[in-house]
Design goal:
Layout lengths: L9 H17 L4 E8 L2 E9 L12 E2 L4 H14 L23 H5 L25 H5 L16 H15 L3 H13 L16 E3 L6 E3 L9 H4 L2 E2 L1 H13 L7 H7 L13 E3 L4 E5 L3 E10 L2 E8 L4 E7 L6 H15 L15 H4 L3 E5 L2 E7 L5 E5 L7 E5 L5 E3 L8 E6 L5 E6 L2 E3 L23
Amino acid sequence: MTTAPVDLLPSTERALIHRLAVAQSEGRLPSLVAAVVRGGRIVWTGSRTSVDGHGPDADVQYRIGSITKTFTAVLVMRLRDEGLLDLDDPLEKHLPGTGVGEVTIAQLLSHSAGLAAETPAPWWERSSAALRPELSDVLGEDPFLHPVGRLHHYSNPGYTLLGSLVEAVRGVSWEEALQSEILDPLGLTRTSTQPVAPHAGGWAVHPWADALLPEPSEDLGIMAPAGQLWSTAADLCRFAVFLAEGDDRVLSAASVREMRTPSAPPEAGDWQGGYGLGVQLSRQDDHRTLSGHTGSLPGFVAGLWISVEDGIGAVALANATSGTAPAVAADLVRIVVEAEPKLPEPWRPLSEVDPALLELTGPWYWGTYAYGLRLSADGTVALEPLRGPGRAARFEARADGTWIGLNGYYKGEILRAVRRPDGSVSHLDLGSFAFTREPYGPDDAVPGGVDPEGWRGV
């Protein structure tokens, strides 16, 4: 998302404000503020409000609910990257005595630990944190609803456990770790655990009348890591850039990419969604995947979505208990992508040509499947089917002269060129599959051998 940004076209800005206006009007939202980030900076902000002559800007705080979970997940990933824990560690290793210690940290991050979605009654978002002073009060007597590790089931108590894990391993409060390890390095000066003026008030809108009711704003106490934060559209755009690119002061690009990688399957029948490690995933238009998170607490709804492929992110925040802010944020990304598609990077030749690698390019056959091997200027190689469906993948060079798969079926698999005693290439070995220069050539190293009579007619 750091390619050179340009301002949006007037027609694109008009489409964005129209989407915002429709959402505020039809959704009967007291206020709605949104922003779009492209190329690493905010390129558009807009707002609509029910108050004549006044509209919130991108510096007004709203409560962001479960977007807080992504911040908590970043803190956990930092502990992993520092070697203080492993994602496959059972919780009990670092936070003993919870009663659910057999679940792993990765399962908690991906909501696949089998825990209940909510705490025991009363409704935790609208009741005093004093009712739940301990983790046992959050988990209840029967915390498991599903087999551990078998399916995705969203769990607020699970992220409360992760916040307590951060405190146990780091030795400071979750809030202190959040401030020093994420907010300060990223310059998120308008993100806080308590509201700081200017901030919006939370409202409930009557479902059958144009009437308002103020919502209480409870301090969540021990549940804070699941949904406490207040933030602004501007701060969340900066956080969106971080989730797309990483920042070595907080987490590397590789670690945030790991967070965006699906870790838990979607619910049955909902193949448009998914969940990584503290990051929600949403499939749009059957070809674009958005990463981010949605959030809600009484009086507020929020959405943050990014399309890493297109280098675009959007945030939408509203001060109503129910509303379409998450969908609005996704729509803003779509509007910009469709109106101003990203220009491809210029083609550039290789800086140097390695004859040994050049020798490997061209057609290869796995059985009767035809593939082509191409060497790219970025140093990777791509193995792709020449016709019809097949298992395409890119590979990155390793120090020992082999190549490791970066995506698709062959992700993590090793590709190597097998040479004959005279140095010529016999075949490519890819995870035990032999790719040869001819389909079942008589002298090729094809497992099982080749019929000596060769190819024939009927």
